[in-house]
Structure prediction request, 391 residues.
Amino acid sequence: MGAKYLAWELERRGITECSPPEADAILITCVSPIDEKYVARVRQKYPQKRIFCGGAAGTSPHSLGKHCDGVCVGDGQTFMEALLTHGADAALSLPNVWIDGQSREVSVDSSFPWNLPPIKCEDGAIRIWCGRGCKNKCAFCQTGWGQEYQENPDGAHVIRQSHRLVGKGEKIAYLSNDVAQHSFYRHLPRIEHGSYSVKYLKQNGLPPARQIRLGIEGVSERLRALVNKPIGHDDLLGCTAWLNKNGKGVRWFLIAGLPGETASDWEELRSAVMEWKRHVKKGVLALSFTAWCPDPATPIAPMPLRDDYWDNFSIFKEWFFAGKGWSNRIKLMSPQQPLSRLQKAMCSMGLGEKQLRTGGDWGPNDRVAYPFKAGAKTMYKKILNQIESGR
Prediction:
């Protein structure tokens, strides 16, 4: 995705891509802070080149910044304009560029190029830009806290564009954190799969996709409320049954290891699985887990990192495959194991293991002036109090 965007930027400015040895500067689009290893290798191979990073990982710039001249935080329109028109020094002086070793506050650029054409990615699907950021403020998700929510300002064009591409037989996908949150949602053509929330599906109706990804996150109603994603047990099962009844395959996206999680929370997930099996006789459900990893800008980022989620998941997995949960209609995908999750957290937060285990540290990325930083720190204190009081 990022590479396609970068190619478009260069092409529309009349610049031909060239190999790194011939280039004046090397631009790297990074999806995750763990891409720092790749950036380090590029730096080692081309020590004399100016190297700049950007992309989705730019909102967690510290780890990338150790191996490059500067990191573009947020969108890249202003950065590309300065770099290609006025040179590297002008780009590095921008307020949204992170430079390793400096102490100045860094802003998040939100000048997204809505005139960017649809991009065809490696999977063959054409991505259509519906929005940026998210209306929700889930305590674990950088999307809602690291940038402001923006809807595509030309919803009518999105609708026309989508129908035209589908009419030509193209496979398309909507780029949005939650397609159902958009004002033009009801007018979009059907696609193969999409990500949605119970909240907006309840408000706006049946989604235009065959495979539905529901961001459930916490394994219990209590945990979901704790991290500001209040989805009731009955609402979750009701929404899933409604989707299945209308011919939709459903995947619950779940986070193992959220702060405050206990074994009793996993008992509720077992109950939800069994209720679904009893009451939904036709339809498919998948449980897709990821392990909680702290991200800068999010309220729960400074919470202590614990590994007991793996024991809880292992017990759940044993129960699932012992015949209690498993069937040919319900599937299970495992979260990351503790070591790989720890390595990712160290890159994301820019902190060592001891600091992550202790908690309370926002890390070096706190130098970024995230748009909702004050609110995130207030919510952190509130959640911490709830956990400590056992609520």
Q: What stands out?
A: The first strand starts at residue 25 and ends at 29. The chain has a mean pLDDT of 91.
